[in-house]
Amino acid sequence: MSATDKPLAVPDAAQAVSAIREAAGYKTPGLSKPRSTPPRARTDHLTGAQKAAIIVRLLLAEGLDTPIAALPADAQAQLTQTLGSMGLVDRATMCAVVDEFVETLDQVGLSFPDGLDAALSLLDGRLDARATQLLRALSRGNAPDDPWTAIENTGTEDLLKLIAQESRTVGAVLLSKLSTDKAARVLMALPGDQAQSLALAIARTEDIAPETVARIGATLAEQISDKPRRAFAVPPSKRMGEILNASSASLRDQMLRDLETADQGYAAGIRKSIFTFQDIPARISARDVPAVMREVAGEDMMQILAAQQPGDSESCEFLLGNMSKRMADTLREDAAALPAPASDTYEAAQARISGIVRRLADDGAITLLEAPE
Which of 24, 40, 186, 263 would you label with 362, given CA atoms 20 to 30 Å apart? Predict the structure, then answer.
């Protein structure tokens, strides 16, 4: 049903179905028929691009992103031109197109990652280091022992130290050999003047011989291998922060008070690693709220709203105010009908939402703002 007559893929099929059913007049997400059941209107006069345009328009109206950028360029152009030429579509035709779309998505079982890189991202943290290194080498067309594979698997902080002690030319070669995402993270972590200097230096790498690049890679990999191996890749303060993130608020607050008495520096590092539900308005950009809410279960938001805790109002209003008004109103109405949840249920819902935010930030899907002093 896309511009190429294939079903349009969406990032969260279940949420897309729910939003489209609601927009088209379905009573509940579980129903497959609208409130009234007249004979389905004909859609054979519509092209695949026109049907896709109707679905995209509904998704956008509900505040859901659609992966249009993943389509081929000509399909993107055709879909955009179709959106601009559709004019008005009557409700019966819209519902008939929605019926077709819902029936297609209801038949979808699982969606698998596209390619080895996407599969590695899906299994991030679940493979051992050696397997990850081997597979990343294969995905880049390199031998497993290629020095640039070892450099690619090196943490951003260590790469920044390497760049700081090398010439601009070596830094430019290093940046050029990294994957696009890794290079972007390194560049963003550099001070502005250093990032600009490296960007200019990349322009002078066009004529560097392959042998020179190989020698640079071998030298940098040797420096990396000289570092002593550590049992834990994550610093102690971050590990403890992650543990306290998953703990109850009372335990977290008491533990932080005790740690500040014993070791203020360690406690300060832990505080920087902690992200709670109450931190949401100060640490999340409004434009990232739709990405977060696509992952959040509606039941969790309703439990928090039903608890009516004073400290949560700012976070709740921030999330509700930056999502689809229809969905926000539905959450408020459904929460108003619920009894106040038990404290453990309420805290578990908060922890799940906080965990979703941290996971999206770790995956690079959203960017957390700096914590206020």
Answer: 263
Q: How many residues does the chain have?
A: 373
Say what percent of the chain tops pLDDT 70: 75
90-93 — which CB contacts under 8 Å span 24+ positions?
Answer: 90/41, 91/25, 92/38, 92/41, 93/41, 93/43, 93/46, 93/54
DSSP state of 38: P
Q: How far is CA 253 from the centre of its chain?
A: 29
Give the model's confidence band at 6: pLDDT under 50 very low, under 70 low, under 90 confident, else very high.
very low
pTM: 0.41
- Domain 275-362 maps to which CATH number in 1.10.10.10, 3.90.226.10, 3.40.50.2000, 1.10.220.30? 1.10.220.30
Q: How far apart are CA 331 and CA 72, in angstroms?
A: 36
The alpha carbons of the chain give a radius of gyration, in whole angstroms, of 25
